[in-house]
Amino acid sequence: MSTTTLDADIAAAPPQAEPEAEREVVPAPAPAAATAAPAAASAAAPATPAKRPRAPSRERTFGTKVAGQPAFVLHSYPYKETSLIIDLFTRDFGRVALIAKGAKRPHSQLRGVLQTFQPLSSSWVGKSELRTLTDAEWVGGMLPLEKTALLCGFYLNELLVKLLARDDAHPRLFDHYVATLNQLAHNEPAPIVLRKFERALLKETGVAADLSRCIETRRAVQADVVYVVDPERGPRPERAADPWPRVAGKTLLDMESEDYQDAATQAQSKQLMRFLLAHHLGGAPLNTRQILIDLMQL
Description:
By secondary structure, the protein is an alpha+beta fold.
């Protein structure tokens, strides 16, 4: 089920009694007779190597009870009279959709907990793609985002909601997200912090090209050559008719090494990342980016 279909189904669903949390189904043990083998047959049978356990598939996470999972709220919206649907970014399960029952009630323990940019310990249960939140606790240890840093945080959340598939784990990206929030809270230069996160996001989702190697010559990018970047393949020397942003080879090399101290690198990387994100978003607008552009030209 796609994110768009899920959200549309939720919005169109008629009011009904809120479902109870689904129980985990534990398979019954196999009969002893089925597991026991005759002694003679065991002695005669040649030894076989042990099978490597299969990695759990995404579907196997459905129906499990998850407890104490590090998470952040990316987005939430009302569901029925007293509940919320929340988009949660978790370290080990990726982006998950959960029903927070009764979270809108005045005395709900969840009411003040499910806030953006607050580190949480979360628990849930359920078999479908839309599961039920059973507990969420504030962990603490992070400074709050304020002013421009707060807008930058909403920009990060919008990128994650629009570019990450649900139930696709990205633990390294989760750690990068935490580090980025901390950097913004400590007033580190927002343009540099955002460029690093944008690049990390494209790498983790598997759509970032290698900016250090020319796709035509297969040789290393030269600092004094001007390039354009094919969003699907990578950099190549510019041509007169190219409509794509032109960037110096030095900028591409700086981006690969996460060195944004040069003013030209900052300016060109901003234009390049805006172009690449627009391509991978299929032209879908980023509302928070436009606000940031209006305020700071980030």
